[in-house]
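Encode chain A's predicted structure.
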Amino acid sequence: MKIFKLKVGSSKIYELNKNIFELQTKQKKPYYTFNNSNEQIQYAVCPACDNPIQIIGLYKKLKNTDKPYGRHCIHSVAGLAEYNQQAYDFCPYSKKSFNVNPQSRKGKLTELEKNIYYLLRDQFDRVIYILRQVLDIYITNKSAKSMLETFVKGKGWLYSWGTLNNIPWILCHLSWAKTLLGQPIRKDSDVYKAIMNNCHEALFCTDERHKGYSILTNKPGEFVDISYCLIQHQREIIDDNLIETFELKISNSKNEAFFSKQIKVDEMYFLNLINKNNEHFRNKTLLDIAQNLMPDL
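Encoded structure for chain A:
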């Protein structure tokens, strides 16, 4: 992997190179230490599974690449991270994870799954914010509540391909089909144009509350039955980089999909957003919804 964290949980993700690693770690323990052969080694945390990783090639030239990368180490690192076998097995950067059915659920609740649960609860407003940005759909508070209810009933925090980085996309993926009726759509977006071109019964009204959006409604005497879902979760490692995608599908009352768009997961987006100092932008209504639906585990 070519990214790293300094701590487990919701800490910021960094690109991995010599300058950034030295700047962020200040060359302190436990990031810098010696192995049993008295060789200097460097450690960090895997952004996806919170397991310890060893940094390879930071100072020593490698045969197969000129760039450093992170590799899971199958043991705990004191003062940094406890090794979690289940989290490693399902990690996108673990080769074992690709033999797993993504629709299955993990067998037990570990610290990673707890962190996913509490991070979704405590950052629910930012989760919805990201979905609004990437989908071009301004998910209403009512719709967001319905999505979370479905996620909680299905124990989505145990989803086998769930990580700390893809929480927004997993929420949408596991909340099934959602109606677009009454939802604000970003004007002139691909979603907006697809509905205009394929649904004669649809009518868009100017959204006075959200600039740049139009609310999907129906023409007089017509009924709109349009829904969207985020499906076909795929992930693969290419050149030590995680490529993770979903397909956004929009369908009509006949269950015919008339719009499809690949949605790529930016694995640095969510954790880096919540580490910004922007508390004055928080949405208390959404946070209250999450608190009410998600008691302590």
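The chain is about 30% helix and 25% strand.
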